[in-house]
Design goal:
Helix content: 55-70%
CATH topology of the largest domain: Rossmann fold
Strand content: under 5%
Radius of gyration: 39 Å
Number of domains: 6
Structural class: mainly alpha
CATH architecture of the largest domain: 3-Layer(aba) Sandwich
CATH superfamily of the largest domain: P-loop containing nucleotide triphosphate hydrolases
Strand order of the largest sheet: 3-5-6-2-7
Largest sheet: 5 strands, parallel
Shape: elongated
Distance between the termini: 84 Å
CATH class of the largest domain: Alpha Beta
Number of strands: 9
């Protein structure tokens, strides 16, 4: 029965108002009162602006988990409105329509809204007549200004009839009613209709989450100070959850070191745990609690995986309900979910208490399920957590993922995961993994020992034997590279070719890094042996590997080795171009390019020495040593030793040059070019010390016929007076077109020195002119600075003075370092920068990221990276900071 204006006289209305709800109980006045905000409440203007949407939509929904800050946000907003807002906090009893509408009407009256005499109160707690609803809607439709009603904790309203009645009133009240629902769950309303009509304002969890800046402000209200960067980490862990942040702040106030507490607090031992266990976990049925505890060991999960861990078949429904209820289960899409990080931490701790000993079994089940699903990284993590190392190692090997130890992509994470593996497991797979782990960190002795053990037991492999043998071949090639053993590398390559046909094609396509790494190792050992053309063939194939993040390190290393070959052959421009290409190749995969051997920095340093840019050479050598991930690679070690020794010679420190020339490598085969360059440095040092006889004697033991070595030996022989021997050496150099300007310029200057010593000044002048012309394009300064005093009188005469001016002598009458001893000369741009490159350069100077530059210039990220690559090449640098510094030195900024 409905009490209306038709059936209720004045006495009845007065009695209804006095007796409150249909049961005759008094109204609970606190349900109509705005919740009070604590002193530490933080107003958030960005959310209040969303609520002040103009024009306001008829329906607004603020939907978030428990403790998301919904109620206080609305209370703060309502308190600031010019007109009163009707506030009603829901109770569980309001599953009865009559009770709901009685309180709804009383909320309107309490706010000061005068209702028509035609509207009475429901007389039946369980039923409401449509005539009363029509009267309410009609009364509200005439409201001007509109009436705003906030229904807080609306998730308590679960009766479909109430939702249907509320939607009826909202629809027919038109613009006279603005309804705001504050809820943890999706309300039983036709929200899609309001969305389609543009009549719904939604504020959900993502917007309710505190930003790092808001977190800093909130903590400051609690007397705590935290940097935005530290607050960002706290927000990541709490997902910006309001209650979690407030509880953290309150607990930190009691801590001796609040800042450390906020960074390292244990969620399971805090008031946050009490809140989540009481408000979320314990409100769930027993079966749901069990599911939550079991899936807490997972970073993400879907219904099938949850069923595997629970042994149930209804996880899909439970997970959907939990997500809908905002029970700290977040949806990732495609039926995948994850737990809120803090909730997950607390559940895992609770699991150990309620189900002791179950966690390893859950990890084991998850590992096997994820392995079958093709999610290898997660399978490995859970296998390791279960302590099932045979399974975990076999999963890695069978997937051909052993190369991931050497790609730079979470390689440290992989090594760290298997560092927990004890010695008790000795299967072929575990031995292969141990070998890969140790070799990736330069532990050659233990790595090769495990490799021998694995090789001896390959016939006992229980998984994919072809994958195990191919993995073994890769590690054999790496071991060969680290020991400078080309024979061992070739055997490994042959073994890989034989077994590759037995490996599933899709598995090979999935791991392009494997052949790329193999070719890189083989090419490196060939280079070490002085077989440059064979090395170039293998390295070029590796550099042309499929363009993916997993192959970037192999391509970078191959380009670096190719650059070294060009450098040793005297092609400085080519070497610099390939080295910078190697750097750019790595930096395409932001934010942190994978480390390698550092060979590209070594080559760039060598080029800088030949150009007499000694300060830059020193910086590059330091970078090479700092960023090297394979410190025992003999090719890089020899290259670094040679360039460092040349740098010390250029600085005039002969003793330091001799000490630096001997590379610290463990190689079973000597490298002819490395030994020859070491002897050349020692000979040049003896010559610089005035010990000409010793210098010449050292050259007699030179075994390599590489043009660069022969030419340098000829220079030293000529300098000590052995002119005929020098000319004989030059005549022995093969004219096969392989040698570049860094070699030919030196050879030309040796001939000029010989002509000058013979008194043939005209020939000497002609040869020096030829050398200047050939060197100017490459900016080769060291050959002229190393030539000796005989060249200086020639350089001050025309036309040689004009050929040398500006880049070699800078107009000075003597051939010397233009910027003074030990100081690099003013940098020279190889090519002019384009307008777009200058635009990118200016933004680099403003510390903008690649993505920010792309957005600012309205171009793609790949376009910006292309400009950066060209920019680095033209400025002869390999990093952003270096590009900005060089540009400032040159007046480009």
């Amino acid at each position: 029965m409905v009490v209306s204006a038709v059936s209720v006289d004045e006495d009845q209305l007065e009695s209804a108002e006095q007796h409150a709800d249909p049961l005759g109980d008094p109204y609970l006045r606190t349900r109509f009162t705005l919740p009070s905000r604590p002193v530490t409440f933080l107003a958030r203007p960005r959310l209040k602006e969303r609520l002040d949407h103009s024009p306001p939509t008829p329906l607004t929904m603020v939907n978030g988990a428990a403790g998301a800050g919904k109620t206080l946000l609305l209370a703060d907003w309502a308190a600031g409105q010019a007109r009163p807002v009707a506030w009603l906090t829901m109770e569980a009893e309001e599953k009865r329509p009559g009770m709901f509408w009685a309180y709804f009407l009383q909320a309107l009256r309490t706010s000061g809204r005068h209702l028509s005499d035609r509207i009475g109160n429901p007389a039946d707690a369980h039923h409401v007549d449509r005539r009363l609803l029509s009267a309410i809607a009609e009364d509200l439709a005439a409201a001007d200004p509109p009436v705003t009603v906030v229904l807080d904790e609306y998730e308590r309203v679960t009766e479909p009839d109430i939702a249907e009645q509320l939607e009826f009133v909202l629809q027919h009240a038109g613009r006279g009613l603005r309804l705001i629902l504050v809820t943890r769950t999706e309300p039983l309303l036709s929200l899609h209709r309001y969305r389609a009509a543009g009549e719904l304002t939604e504020i959900r969890a993502a917007e309710l989450a505190f930003t790092p800046e808001e977190t800093v402000a909130l903590l400051r209200l609690h007397g705590l100070r935290l940097s935005v960067q530290a607050a960002r980490a706290l927000v990541d862990r709490t997902r910006g959850w309001a209650a979690g942040l407030r509880l953290c702040a309150l607990a930190a106030q009691e801590s001796q070191d609040p800042e450390v507490y906020l960074k390292e607090f244990e969620a399971d031992r805090s008031t946050i745990a009490d809140f989540l266990l009481a408000e979320v976990l314990k409100r769930q049925p027993e079966a749901t609690q069990d599911l939550l505890l079991r899936i807490s060991v997972l970073d993400r999960f879907n219904p099938d995986l949850a069923n595997t861990l629970t042994g149930r078949a209804d996880s899909a429904r439970i997970l959907a309900d939990l997500h809908r209820e905002n029970a700290f289960v977040e949806q990732l899409g495609h039926s995948w979910y994850r737990l809120h990080p803090l909730f997950g931490e607390i559940l895992r701790a609770h699991l150990c208490v309620r189900r002791p000993g179950l966690e390893p079994e859950l990890h084991r089940r998850a590992a096997h399920w994820l392995r079958q699903a093709g999610s290898l990284p997660e399978a490995l993590a859970h296998g390791a957590a279960a302590g099932d190392w045979d399974f975990t190692a076999a999963a890695l090997v069978d997937d051909l993922a052993i190369g991931r130890f050497f790609t730079g992509l979470r390689s440290d994470d992989l090594a760290g995961l298997f560092s927990r593996m004890g010695p008790e497991t000795t299967s072929p797979a575990t031995e292969l993994v141990r070998a890969a782990r140790d070799l990736s960190h330069g532990d050659f002795r233990h790595g090769t020992a495990h490799l021998r053990q694995a090789h001896a037991r390959l016939d006992d492999a229980t998984g994919d034997p072809a994958a195990a043998r191919l993995s073994c071949a890769l590690l054999e090639a790496l071991a060969a590279r680290l020991t400078g053993s080309p024979t061992r590398a070739e055997l490994a390559a042959e073994s890989a070719d034989e077994v590759r046909q037995d490996v599933a094609p899709d598995l090979l396509l999935k791991h392009p890094e494997l052949p790329a790494l193999l070719l890189t190792h083989v090419g490196s050992t060939r280079l070490w042996a002085g077989r440059f053309e064979e090395a170039r063939a293998a390295l070029a194939k590796a550099a042309d590997a499929p363009d993916s993040a997993s192959t970037v390190l192999a391509r970078k290393e191959s380009l670096g080795h190719l650059a070294l070959i060009d450098y040793l052959d005297g092609w400085l421009g080519r070497a610099e171009h390939k080295a910078l290409e190697a750097v750019a190749e790595a930096e395409r995969f932001d934010p942190s390019p994978p480390a390698g051997s550092g060979i590209e920095q070594v080559v760039l340093a060598g080029v800088a020495v030949d150009r007499n840019e000694l300060g830059r050479a020193k910086t590059l050598l330091e970078e090479a040593a700092e960023h090297s991930a394979t410190p025992h690679d003999p090719v890089t070690a020899a290259g670094r030793a040679i360039v460092t020794a040349r740098l010390q010679l250029a600085r005039g420190d002969a003793r330091a040059a001799v000490e630096a020339a001997d590379p610290d490598v463990f190689a079973v085969v000597a490298s002819p070019w490395a030994e020859s360059h070491e002897r050349l440095v020692t000979s040049a040092a003896r010559l610089a010390e005035g010990r000409a006889g010793e210098a010449a004697e050292i050259l007699r033991k030179l075994g390599d016929d590489q043009p660069s070595c022969t030419t340098e030996a000829a220079r030293i022989q000529c300098a000590v007076g052995n002119v005929e021997e020098a000319i004989d050496l030059l005549d022995s150099v093969r004219a096969d077109g392989r040698t570049g300007p860094a070699v030919t310029v030196r050879a030309t200057l040796v001939k000029a020195m010989a002509a000058d010593a013979a008194g043939d000044t005209a020939t000497a002048r002609r040869l020096v002119a030829q050398a200047l012309l050939d060197a100017r394009r490459e900016r080769l300064r060291r050959p002229f600075l190393d030539a000796g005093r005989w060249i200086r009188p020639l350089l001050v005469t025309a036309p040689l003075d004009r050929l040398a001016a500006g880049w070699l002598t800078a107009g000075h009458p003597a051939c010397e370092d233009p910027a003074g001893p030990g100081t690099p000369p003013a940098p020279i741009v190889v090519e002019e920068l384009s307008a777009r490159e200058r635009d990118v350069l200016r933004r680099l100077a403003q510390m903008m990221s690649t993505q920010e530059i792309a957005a600012d210039m309205y171009v793609s990220v790949n376009t910006v990276k292309t400009h950066l690559k060209s920019l680095y090449r033209k400025l002869a640098v390999n990093r952003r900071g270096a590009a900005v510094r060089r540009a400032r030195d040159m007046g480009l900024l």
